[in-house]
Amino acid sequence: DDGQGDPELALPARRVNNPAAGLAHWFAPMAASFARTSELASPFGETLARSALTLDSHHWGARLMLAKDYQSYSRYDEALALLGSKKDMPPVARLLRAEILLEKGEVAAAMAEADLAIAGSDVPRDLLISHTDFVRKMKDPAKSKQALERLLAHLTGRGDDPQLQALILVSLADLRLKS
User: Fold this and answer.
1) CB contact at 8 A, 7 and 124
2) I want to staple 67 with a disulfide (CB 3.0 to 4.6 A). Which of 33, 79, 112, 176 is the partner?
3) Are 117 and 91 in contact (CB under 8 A)?
4) 112 burial class (0-12, 13-18, 19+ CB within 10 angstroms)?
């Protein structure tokens, strides 16, 4: 699966090799589900995510959910500490780190993280879309053009999503008109 529809699906598969990891494997998606469906359930979702991390400190799904929760309450330093800055961080976590840095006002660091998130050659479609959205928030026409062109090349090479391709072409034309 290329993560289409949910960038978190681009996380690496985790081996469940003990009971604690098994519980964490179930708690993290439940926490994410609660976070997506109801603000009232957020404390319960956060409790599930914390439980998953307690049971398996390497569970990126739970880590992402908690970091997003911290981000939504402007608790940027806590979110960044939770994500860390490891070189082997999953790309979707690195992009979340970039978003948090941008909200915190650290523009150069945010752009560097965002670029690292898509540094590989086989980047999932939805991660490229998220990266393009991120870059466009930065209001840098040259970077926006690069991101849009990379996404377009990815889609064109696979014959994927002609409507999105058309939208990208319109966005590129708009950038040209504004420059």
Assistant:
1) yes
2) 79
3) yes
4) middle
Beta-carbon contacts of residue 129 (< 8 Å; ≥ 6 apart): 151, 164
Can you tell me which residue has the tokens 């990126």? 60
- Cβ pair 127, 92 in contact under 8 A: yes
